[in-house]
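Side project, low priority. Logging it here so it doesn't get lost.
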Amino acid sequence: MENPNRAPQSKNWFQGHAQKIGALFFWVLLIVFYQWYANSHGLSSLEVAQRMLGFLKDGFWGPLIYIILYAVRPLILFPSTILTLAGGFVFGPVLGVLYTIIASNISSTMAFFVGHYFGEGIFKDDGSDSLIQRYARRMRENSFETVMIMRFIFLPYDAVSYLAGFLRIKFWPFILATALGSIPGTIAFIGFGASIETFEGALPKLNPVTLGFSVAIFIVSIALSRIFKKREGISK
């Protein structure tokens, strides 16, 4: 007969994190399957995107397919830049920007909460002055400004989203900074995709006006990042 006063046995690390280990295993399996499929068929990320173009051009369902693919893209680490360029090429500068802003915010939200789930209980502020703790503290205290600068200077899109969730910063400052900070980059890359008129030979034929506008927006984004950096330095 068990002693009612006996303290319950504490769970070991694997028992306490069994659910996360299972989720991580599934996630890694998904990435490996995609990489295996692409490699076994000799497909680069660009060639995968080119194969998607036929589905994206499919009238009514094209925008929905694009948004869904963009939303789940972080789970297989598919480059956002390539899909953004495809969106500009298929939908043009106006609708391409609209669809990509919707899709990118959904995808960043998904990546944020995946990072948030796996980051639970890690990197708590212990009051130390280590480099990691200082950077994590900065992101938590200046979430909006830090994420905004990261978006302006085109740091890897998914890495920023996963890191923000992993460090468990507040969601609303993150998503607002992402929505605003990604606009210049989205316009720039959509503009570049829209500037591609035809694929003739080894190099595509580009529209110089659309391409020039895209480059100008890219420069504006870099300039904005410098302004925010100076502003953040003054406010400290």
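Brief comment: Residues 80-118 form the longest helix (39 residues).
Revisit when time allows.
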